[in-house]
Amino acid sequence: MKASLRLLTKRRFAPLFVTQLLGAFNDNLFKNAMVLFVVFSVYSDPKAETWFSALATAAATVPFFLLSALSGQLADQRDKAGIIRLVKLAEIPIMIAGAAGLLMAWQGYAVEIVAIPLMMLAMLAMGIHSTFFGPIKYAILPQHLEDDEILGGTGLVEAGTYIAILAGTILAGLISVQVAAVAVLAIACLGYITGRMVPPAPPIGPPAKLDFHIIRASVNLVSATMHIPRLFLAIVSISFFWTIGTVLFIQFPPLVKNVLSADKAIASLFLAIFSVGVAIGSIVINRLLQGKVSAKFAPSSVLAMGGFVVAFHFICRMWDSGMPPGQFMSMADFIAHDHAFILVLSLLGIAVSGGMFVVPLYAFLTTTVDKSQAARTVAANNIVNAGAMVIGALITLGMSAAGVNVVNQLLFTASMSLLSAWLAQKLHLACD
After folding, report:
1. Tens digit of pLDDT for each residue in 218-259?
2. For the chain, which terminal residue's Cβ has fewer other Cβ atoms within 10 angstroms, N or C?
3. How many Cα atoms within 13 Å fall on the side-chain side of residue 327?
4. How far apart are the C-alpha atoms of 102 and 118, rounded to whole Å?
5. Do residues 365 and 228 lie in contact, with contact meaning Cβ atoms separated by under 8 Å?
Protein backbone atom coordinates (compact mmCIF):
# COMPACT_ATOMS: atom_id res chain seq x y z
CA MET A 1 0.00 0.00 0.00
CA LYS A 2 2.85 2.39 0.83
CA ALA A 3 4.35 1.74 -2.59
CA SER A 4 1.05 2.68 -4.22
CA LEU A 5 0.73 5.86 -2.17
CA ARG A 6 4.19 6.94 -3.36
CA LEU A 7 2.65 7.36 -6.82
CA LEU A 8 0.87 10.44 -5.45
CA THR A 9 4.26 12.19 -5.32
CA LYS A 10 5.10 11.41 -8.96
CA ARG A 11 4.34 13.80 -11.82
CA ARG A 12 3.56 10.82 -14.05
CA PHE A 13 0.55 10.06 -11.82
CA ALA A 14 -0.33 12.92 -9.42
CA PRO A 15 -1.77 15.48 -11.95
CA LEU A 16 -3.99 12.81 -13.51
CA PHE A 17 -5.12 11.69 -10.05
CA VAL A 18 -6.02 15.23 -8.98
CA THR A 19 -7.72 16.05 -12.29
CA GLN A 20 -9.97 12.99 -12.22
CA LEU A 21 -10.67 13.58 -8.52
CA LEU A 22 -11.82 17.15 -9.21
CA GLY A 23 -13.94 15.97 -12.13
CA ALA A 24 -15.70 13.32 -10.06
CA PHE A 25 -16.17 15.81 -7.23
CA ASN A 26 -17.75 18.38 -9.54
CA ASP A 27 -20.00 15.82 -11.26
CA ASN A 28 -21.44 14.73 -7.95
CA LEU A 29 -21.65 18.15 -6.36
CA PHE A 30 -23.68 19.41 -9.29
CA LYS A 31 -25.85 16.31 -9.73
CA ASN A 32 -26.69 15.93 -6.05
CA ALA A 33 -27.27 19.64 -5.48
CA MET A 34 -29.73 19.49 -8.38
CA VAL A 35 -31.45 16.23 -7.36
CA LEU A 36 -31.70 17.05 -3.65
CA PHE A 37 -33.10 20.52 -4.33
CA VAL A 38 -35.73 19.25 -6.75
CA VAL A 39 -36.72 16.21 -4.65
CA PHE A 40 -36.98 18.12 -1.37
CA SER A 41 -38.06 21.57 -2.58
CA VAL A 42 -39.98 21.17 -5.86
CA TYR A 43 -41.83 17.83 -5.95
CA SER A 44 -44.00 16.25 -3.27
CA ASP A 45 -44.89 12.98 -4.99
CA PRO A 46 -42.75 9.82 -4.48
CA LYS A 47 -43.20 8.65 -8.09
CA ALA A 48 -42.25 12.06 -9.52
CA GLU A 49 -39.19 12.14 -7.26
CA THR A 50 -38.07 8.67 -8.37
CA TRP A 51 -38.63 9.58 -12.02
CA PHE A 52 -36.59 12.75 -11.70
CA SER A 53 -33.74 10.94 -9.92
CA ALA A 54 -33.77 8.25 -12.63
CA LEU A 55 -33.85 10.79 -15.48
CA ALA A 56 -30.89 12.66 -13.99
CA THR A 57 -28.97 9.38 -13.84
CA ALA A 58 -29.97 8.56 -17.42
CA ALA A 59 -28.85 11.99 -18.67
CA ALA A 60 -25.40 11.38 -17.22
CA THR A 61 -25.25 7.79 -18.54
CA VAL A 62 -26.64 7.84 -22.10
CA PRO A 63 -23.54 9.62 -23.55
CA PHE A 64 -21.38 6.70 -22.39
CA PHE A 65 -23.58 4.36 -24.41
CA LEU A 66 -23.56 6.51 -27.55
CA LEU A 67 -20.10 8.08 -27.62
CA SER A 68 -17.71 5.70 -25.84
CA ALA A 69 -16.60 4.09 -29.11
CA LEU A 70 -15.51 7.47 -30.47
CA SER A 71 -13.87 8.46 -27.20
CA GLY A 72 -11.93 5.18 -27.11
CA GLN A 73 -10.68 5.66 -30.67
CA LEU A 74 -9.55 9.21 -29.90
CA ALA A 75 -7.79 8.19 -26.70
CA ASP A 76 -5.81 5.44 -28.43
CA GLN A 77 -4.95 7.47 -31.56
CA ARG A 78 -4.30 10.92 -30.10
CA ASP A 79 -2.22 12.28 -27.23
CA LYS A 80 -4.25 11.43 -24.12
CA ALA A 81 -2.92 14.46 -22.24
CA GLY A 82 -4.06 16.74 -25.08
CA ILE A 83 -7.57 15.29 -24.93
CA ILE A 84 -7.64 15.85 -21.18
CA ARG A 85 -6.90 19.56 -21.69
CA LEU A 86 -9.70 19.96 -24.24
CA VAL A 87 -12.19 18.04 -22.12
CA LYS A 88 -11.43 20.04 -18.97
CA LEU A 89 -11.68 23.30 -20.90
CA ALA A 90 -15.17 22.27 -22.08
CA GLU A 91 -16.21 21.69 -18.46
CA ILE A 92 -16.08 25.43 -17.77
CA PRO A 93 -18.93 26.54 -20.13
CA ILE A 94 -20.92 23.44 -19.14
CA MET A 95 -20.77 24.49 -15.51
CA ILE A 96 -21.69 28.07 -16.41
CA ALA A 97 -24.96 26.68 -17.79
CA GLY A 98 -25.43 24.36 -14.82
CA ALA A 99 -24.77 27.15 -12.32
CA ALA A 100 -27.32 29.34 -14.12
CA GLY A 101 -29.92 26.58 -13.76
CA LEU A 102 -29.21 26.17 -10.04
CA LEU A 103 -29.48 29.93 -9.44
CA MET A 104 -32.76 30.14 -11.37
CA ALA A 105 -34.16 27.25 -9.32
CA TRP A 106 -33.06 28.98 -6.10
CA GLN A 107 -34.82 32.18 -7.17
CA GLY A 108 -37.94 30.21 -8.14
CA TYR A 109 -37.78 31.58 -11.68
CA ALA A 110 -39.41 29.33 -14.30
CA VAL A 111 -38.26 26.29 -12.32
CA GLU A 112 -40.03 23.55 -14.28
CA ILE A 113 -40.01 25.31 -17.65
CA VAL A 114 -36.45 26.67 -17.82
CA ALA A 115 -34.33 25.92 -14.73
CA ILE A 116 -34.82 22.14 -14.57
CA PRO A 117 -34.35 21.61 -18.35
CA LEU A 118 -31.20 23.78 -18.21
CA MET A 119 -29.81 21.72 -15.33
CA MET A 120 -30.66 18.51 -17.17
CA LEU A 121 -28.90 19.82 -20.28
CA ALA A 122 -25.80 20.55 -18.20
CA MET A 123 -26.05 17.07 -16.69
CA LEU A 124 -26.16 15.57 -20.19
CA ALA A 125 -23.15 17.68 -21.23
CA MET A 126 -21.23 16.54 -18.15
CA GLY A 127 -22.05 12.98 -19.18
CA ILE A 128 -20.44 13.70 -22.56
CA HIS A 129 -17.47 15.28 -20.76
CA SER A 130 -17.03 12.17 -18.61
CA THR A 131 -17.44 9.88 -21.63
CA PHE A 132 -14.35 11.35 -23.28
CA PHE A 133 -12.37 11.51 -20.04
CA GLY A 134 -13.34 8.04 -18.76
CA PRO A 135 -11.22 5.81 -21.05
CA ILE A 136 -8.18 7.99 -20.53
CA LYS A 137 -7.99 7.84 -16.74
CA TYR A 138 -7.47 4.06 -16.85
CA ALA A 139 -5.81 3.62 -20.27
CA ILE A 140 -3.08 6.18 -19.56
CA LEU A 141 -1.86 4.19 -16.54
CA PRO A 142 -0.01 1.45 -18.50
CA GLN A 143 1.89 4.22 -20.33
CA HIS A 144 2.99 6.09 -17.21
CA LEU A 145 3.28 3.27 -14.65
CA GLU A 146 5.38 0.11 -14.36
CA ASP A 147 3.64 -3.25 -14.67
CA ASP A 148 3.72 -3.87 -10.91
CA GLU A 149 2.25 -0.40 -10.26
CA ILE A 150 -0.86 -0.74 -12.43
CA LEU A 151 -3.13 -2.46 -9.88
CA GLY A 152 -2.07 0.01 -7.19
CA GLY A 153 -2.57 2.95 -9.54
CA THR A 154 -5.98 1.61 -10.59
CA GLY A 155 -6.95 1.22 -6.94
CA LEU A 156 -5.85 4.77 -6.15
CA VAL A 157 -7.80 6.16 -9.11
CA GLU A 158 -10.88 4.19 -8.04
CA ALA A 159 -10.46 5.15 -4.38
CA GLY A 160 -9.86 8.80 -5.32
CA THR A 161 -12.95 8.77 -7.50
CA TYR A 162 -15.12 7.57 -4.66
CA ILE A 163 -13.55 9.89 -2.11
CA ALA A 164 -14.37 12.72 -4.53
CA ILE A 165 -17.91 11.39 -4.90
CA LEU A 166 -18.09 11.28 -1.11
CA ALA A 167 -16.94 14.89 -0.73
CA GLY A 168 -19.17 16.20 -3.52
CA THR A 169 -22.18 14.31 -2.19
CA ILE A 170 -21.71 15.46 1.40
CA LEU A 171 -21.15 19.06 0.35
CA ALA A 172 -24.28 19.03 -1.83
CA GLY A 173 -26.37 18.15 1.23
CA LEU A 174 -24.79 20.76 3.46
CA ILE A 175 -24.50 23.92 1.36
CA SER A 176 -27.21 26.04 -0.22
CA VAL A 177 -27.99 25.69 -3.89
CA GLN A 178 -26.62 29.17 -4.65
CA VAL A 179 -23.25 28.34 -3.04
CA ALA A 180 -23.18 25.10 -5.05
CA ALA A 181 -23.63 27.14 -8.24
CA VAL A 182 -20.48 29.15 -7.50
CA ALA A 183 -18.52 26.09 -6.35
CA VAL A 184 -19.10 23.97 -9.49
CA LEU A 185 -17.79 26.75 -11.73
CA ALA A 186 -14.71 27.35 -9.55
CA ILE A 187 -13.86 23.62 -9.45
CA ALA A 188 -14.20 23.36 -13.25
CA CYS A 189 -11.57 26.10 -13.61
CA LEU A 190 -9.25 24.38 -11.12
CA GLY A 191 -9.65 21.06 -12.98
CA TYR A 192 -8.54 22.71 -16.21
CA ILE A 193 -5.38 24.00 -14.48
CA THR A 194 -4.41 20.57 -13.09
CA GLY A 195 -5.28 18.88 -16.40
CA ARG A 196 -2.64 20.96 -18.14
CA MET A 197 0.01 19.37 -15.88
CA VAL A 198 -0.60 15.77 -17.04
CA PRO A 199 2.53 14.52 -18.89
CA PRO A 200 2.21 13.72 -22.61
CA ALA A 201 0.88 10.27 -23.51
CA PRO A 202 1.19 9.95 -27.29
CA PRO A 203 -0.48 7.12 -29.21
CA ILE A 204 1.44 3.85 -29.18
CA GLY A 205 0.05 2.11 -32.26
CA PRO A 206 -0.05 3.31 -35.87
CA PRO A 207 -2.70 5.97 -36.66
CA ALA A 208 -6.02 4.75 -38.05
CA LYS A 209 -9.05 6.45 -39.53
CA LEU A 210 -11.65 7.47 -36.95
CA ASP A 211 -15.12 6.01 -37.41
CA PHE A 212 -17.64 8.79 -36.62
CA HIS A 213 -20.66 6.52 -37.22
CA ILE A 214 -21.41 6.08 -33.52
CA ILE A 215 -23.70 3.05 -33.83
CA ARG A 216 -21.43 1.11 -36.20
CA ALA A 217 -18.35 2.08 -34.21
CA SER A 218 -19.98 0.99 -30.94
CA VAL A 219 -21.08 -2.37 -32.34
CA ASN A 220 -17.65 -3.01 -33.87
CA LEU A 221 -15.82 -1.99 -30.71
CA VAL A 222 -17.89 -4.14 -28.38
CA SER A 223 -17.80 -7.16 -30.70
CA ALA A 224 -14.03 -6.81 -31.14
CA THR A 225 -13.54 -6.76 -27.37
CA MET A 226 -16.14 -9.15 -26.01
CA HIS A 227 -14.85 -12.17 -27.97
CA ILE A 228 -11.91 -12.37 -25.53
CA PRO A 229 -13.31 -14.61 -22.74
CA ARG A 230 -11.68 -12.90 -19.75
CA LEU A 231 -12.66 -9.45 -21.05
CA PHE A 232 -16.21 -10.60 -21.68
CA LEU A 233 -16.55 -11.94 -18.14
CA ALA A 234 -14.90 -8.88 -16.56
CA ILE A 235 -17.02 -6.39 -18.51
CA VAL A 236 -20.30 -8.18 -17.87
CA SER A 237 -19.45 -8.53 -14.16
CA ILE A 238 -18.62 -4.82 -13.90
CA SER A 239 -21.87 -4.01 -15.70
CA PHE A 240 -23.91 -5.95 -13.16
CA PHE A 241 -22.14 -4.04 -10.38
CA TRP A 242 -23.06 -0.71 -11.96
CA THR A 243 -26.65 -1.84 -12.52
CA ILE A 244 -26.88 -2.53 -8.79
CA GLY A 245 -25.17 0.77 -7.96
CA THR A 246 -27.43 2.73 -10.30
CA VAL A 247 -30.60 1.32 -8.76
CA LEU A 248 -29.33 2.11 -5.26
CA PHE A 249 -28.32 5.67 -6.17
CA ILE A 250 -31.73 6.31 -7.74
CA GLN A 251 -33.51 4.90 -4.70
CA PHE A 252 -31.61 6.71 -1.95
CA PRO A 253 -33.18 10.24 -2.13
CA PRO A 254 -36.85 9.11 -2.29
CA LEU A 255 -36.18 6.31 0.22
CA VAL A 256 -34.70 8.73 2.74
CA LYS A 257 -37.54 11.21 2.28
CA ASN A 258 -40.53 8.87 2.09
CA VAL A 259 -39.50 5.76 4.07
CA LEU A 260 -37.09 7.09 6.69
CA SER A 261 -38.79 10.53 6.91
CA ALA A 262 -35.38 12.18 7.02
CA ASP A 263 -34.07 15.41 5.49
CA LYS A 264 -31.71 15.92 2.54
CA ALA A 265 -28.62 15.81 4.76
CA ILE A 266 -29.38 12.14 5.45
CA ALA A 267 -29.82 11.46 1.73
CA SER A 268 -26.44 13.06 1.16
CA LEU A 269 -24.99 10.97 4.01
CA PHE A 270 -26.26 7.73 2.41
CA LEU A 271 -24.71 8.56 -0.95
CA ALA A 272 -21.49 9.56 0.82
CA ILE A 273 -21.31 6.34 2.84
CA PHE A 274 -21.70 4.34 -0.36
CA SER A 275 -18.91 6.29 -2.00
CA VAL A 276 -16.42 6.08 0.86
CA GLY A 277 -17.21 2.40 1.31
CA VAL A 278 -16.24 1.63 -2.27
CA ALA A 279 -13.02 3.59 -1.73
CA ILE A 280 -12.25 1.50 1.37
CA GLY A 281 -13.00 -1.68 -0.55
CA SER A 282 -10.65 -0.55 -3.33
CA ILE A 283 -7.78 -0.19 -0.87
CA VAL A 284 -8.55 -3.40 1.04
CA ILE A 285 -8.62 -5.59 -2.06
CA ASN A 286 -5.31 -4.15 -3.28
CA ARG A 287 -3.79 -5.10 0.07
CA LEU A 288 -5.26 -8.61 -0.01
CA LEU A 289 -4.11 -9.29 -3.57
CA GLN A 290 -0.69 -7.69 -2.96
CA GLY A 291 -0.59 -6.09 -6.38
CA LYS A 292 -1.63 -9.19 -8.34
CA VAL A 293 -4.47 -8.78 -10.85
CA SER A 294 -6.87 -11.54 -9.80
CA ALA A 295 -10.60 -12.25 -9.42
CA LYS A 296 -9.92 -14.52 -6.45
CA PHE A 297 -12.11 -12.59 -4.00
CA ALA A 298 -14.69 -11.27 -6.48
CA PRO A 299 -17.39 -14.01 -6.07
CA SER A 300 -17.41 -13.85 -2.26
CA SER A 301 -17.31 -10.04 -2.32
CA VAL A 302 -20.40 -9.64 -4.50
CA LEU A 303 -22.30 -12.29 -2.54
CA ALA A 304 -21.51 -10.33 0.62
CA MET A 305 -22.76 -7.22 -1.15
CA GLY A 306 -26.08 -8.93 -1.88
CA GLY A 307 -26.37 -10.08 1.73
CA PHE A 308 -25.86 -6.56 3.02
CA VAL A 309 -28.54 -5.27 0.60
CA VAL A 310 -31.02 -7.81 2.04
CA ALA A 311 -30.11 -6.67 5.56
CA PHE A 312 -30.58 -3.04 4.52
CA HIS A 313 -34.01 -3.95 3.10
CA PHE A 314 -35.26 -5.51 6.33
CA ILE A 315 -33.97 -2.64 8.48
CA CYS A 316 -35.82 -0.17 6.25
CA ARG A 317 -39.00 -2.23 6.60
CA MET A 318 -38.74 -2.04 10.40
CA TRP A 319 -37.98 1.69 10.42
CA ASP A 320 -40.35 3.98 12.29
CA SER A 321 -39.23 7.58 12.40
CA GLY A 322 -41.98 8.73 14.75
CA MET A 323 -42.13 12.02 12.84
CA PRO A 324 -45.47 13.78 12.16
CA PRO A 325 -46.55 13.86 8.48
CA GLY A 326 -44.66 16.51 6.50
CA GLN A 327 -41.77 16.74 8.97
CA PHE A 328 -38.33 15.20 8.51
CA MET A 329 -35.70 13.86 10.88
CA SER A 330 -32.62 16.01 11.30
CA MET A 331 -29.13 14.53 11.43
CA ALA A 332 -29.27 14.54 15.23
CA ASP A 333 -32.66 12.76 15.19
CA PHE A 334 -31.33 10.16 12.76
CA ILE A 335 -28.19 9.45 14.79
CA ALA A 336 -30.30 9.03 17.94
CA HIS A 337 -32.63 6.49 16.26
CA ASP A 338 -32.33 2.92 17.61
CA HIS A 339 -31.79 1.40 14.16
CA ALA A 340 -29.50 4.08 12.71
CA PHE A 341 -26.21 2.36 13.53
CA ILE A 342 -27.15 -1.01 12.02
CA LEU A 343 -28.66 0.73 8.98
CA VAL A 344 -25.44 2.69 8.33
CA LEU A 345 -23.35 -0.43 8.98
CA SER A 346 -25.30 -2.47 6.42
CA LEU A 347 -24.96 0.33 3.85
CA LEU A 348 -21.23 0.55 4.49
CA GLY A 349 -21.02 -3.23 4.06
CA ILE A 350 -22.72 -2.96 0.66
CA ALA A 351 -20.19 -0.40 -0.49
CA VAL A 352 -17.00 -1.99 0.89
CA SER A 353 -17.81 -5.40 -0.58
CA GLY A 354 -18.76 -3.71 -3.86
CA GLY A 355 -15.40 -1.97 -4.04
CA MET A 356 -13.60 -5.24 -3.34
CA PHE A 357 -15.54 -6.81 -6.20
CA VAL A 358 -15.11 -4.22 -8.93
CA VAL A 359 -11.54 -2.88 -8.67
CA PRO A 360 -9.66 -6.03 -9.78
CA LEU A 361 -12.05 -6.32 -12.71
CA TYR A 362 -11.07 -2.84 -13.93
CA ALA A 363 -7.42 -3.88 -13.72
CA PHE A 364 -8.21 -6.81 -16.03
CA LEU A 365 -9.32 -4.35 -18.72
CA THR A 366 -5.95 -2.62 -19.05
CA THR A 367 -3.67 -5.61 -18.47
CA THR A 368 -5.33 -8.16 -20.76
CA VAL A 369 -4.78 -6.26 -24.01
CA ASP A 370 -1.87 -4.45 -25.65
CA LYS A 371 -1.28 -0.93 -24.31
CA SER A 372 -2.25 0.51 -27.70
CA GLN A 373 -5.73 -1.02 -27.27
CA ALA A 374 -6.28 -0.11 -23.61
CA ALA A 375 -8.46 2.98 -24.12
CA ARG A 376 -10.73 1.20 -26.60
CA THR A 377 -11.10 -1.69 -24.17
CA VAL A 378 -12.15 0.68 -21.39
CA ALA A 379 -14.49 2.40 -23.87
CA ALA A 380 -16.11 -0.93 -24.80
CA ASN A 381 -16.58 -1.57 -21.09
CA ASN A 382 -18.16 1.87 -20.70
CA ILE A 383 -20.64 1.15 -23.51
CA VAL A 384 -21.79 -2.10 -21.91
CA ASN A 385 -21.80 -0.53 -18.42
CA ALA A 386 -23.86 2.42 -19.64
CA GLY A 387 -26.37 0.11 -21.30
CA ALA A 388 -26.67 -1.86 -18.06
CA MET A 389 -27.10 1.34 -16.03
CA VAL A 390 -29.82 2.62 -18.35
CA ILE A 391 -31.56 -0.75 -18.08
CA GLY A 392 -31.28 -0.50 -14.29
CA ALA A 393 -32.85 2.97 -14.38
CA LEU A 394 -35.66 1.73 -16.65
CA ILE A 395 -36.31 -1.26 -14.38
CA THR A 396 -36.51 1.12 -11.41
CA LEU A 397 -39.02 3.29 -13.26
CA GLY A 398 -40.97 0.20 -14.28
CA MET A 399 -41.13 -1.10 -10.72
CA SER A 400 -42.26 2.32 -9.49
CA ALA A 401 -44.95 2.49 -12.19
CA ALA A 402 -46.10 -1.01 -11.22
CA GLY A 403 -46.54 0.13 -7.62
CA VAL A 404 -43.50 -1.66 -6.13
CA ASN A 405 -42.35 0.53 -3.26
CA VAL A 406 -38.76 1.64 -2.99
CA VAL A 407 -37.96 -0.69 -0.07
CA ASN A 408 -39.05 -3.82 -1.93
CA GLN A 409 -37.11 -2.67 -4.99
CA LEU A 410 -33.96 -3.30 -2.94
CA LEU A 411 -34.54 -7.04 -3.26
CA PHE A 412 -34.09 -6.73 -7.03
CA THR A 413 -30.57 -5.39 -6.52
CA ALA A 414 -29.79 -8.20 -4.08
CA SER A 415 -30.88 -10.85 -6.57
CA MET A 416 -28.47 -9.56 -9.21
CA SER A 417 -25.51 -10.34 -6.95
CA LEU A 418 -26.09 -14.06 -7.51
CA LEU A 419 -25.53 -13.77 -11.26
CA SER A 420 -22.58 -11.43 -10.68
CA ALA A 421 -20.97 -14.00 -8.39
CA TRP A 422 -21.41 -16.75 -11.00
CA LEU A 423 -19.74 -14.61 -13.66
CA ALA A 424 -16.91 -13.63 -11.30
CA GLN A 425 -16.30 -17.28 -10.44
CA LYS A 426 -16.04 -18.15 -14.13
CA LEU A 427 -13.52 -15.31 -14.56
CA HIS A 428 -11.51 -16.54 -11.58
CA LEU A 429 -11.39 -20.10 -12.93
CA ALA A 430 -10.48 -18.91 -16.43
CA CYS A 431 -7.68 -16.54 -15.47
CA ASP A 432 -6.20 -17.31 -12.05
Report:
1. 788 778 777 777 788 888 888 888 887 777 777 777 888 888
2. C
3. 8
4. 9
5. no
Q: Please indicate, yes or no, if residue 38 is contained in any of the structural domains.
A: yes
- The CATH number that applies at residue 160 is 1.20.1250.20
Which residues face 262 on adjacent strands? 329
Average pLDDT in the chain: 82
- Output the pLDDT for position 2: 47
2 is a domain residue: no
Residue 63, in any domain of the structure: yes
User: Which sign does the torsion angle of CA 60, 62, 65, 66 carry?
Assistant: negative
Domain assignment of residue 59, yes or no: yes
- pTM for the model stands at 0.68
pLDDT (tens digit per residue) in 148-194: 677 777 778 877 877 787 788 778 878 888 899 999 999 999 999 99
Q: How many domains does the chain have?
A: 1
> Which residues have C-beta within 8 Å of that of residue 227, sequence separation ≥ 6?
none
For 116, 201, 284, the CA distances from 34, given in Å and listed in that order, are 8, 35, 33
User: Where in the sequence is the domain holding 307, given as residue range(s)?
Assistant: 8-201+212-431
Triad 218, 192, 205: Cα angle to 5°: 40
213: left (phi over 0), alpha (psi -120 to 50) or beta: beta
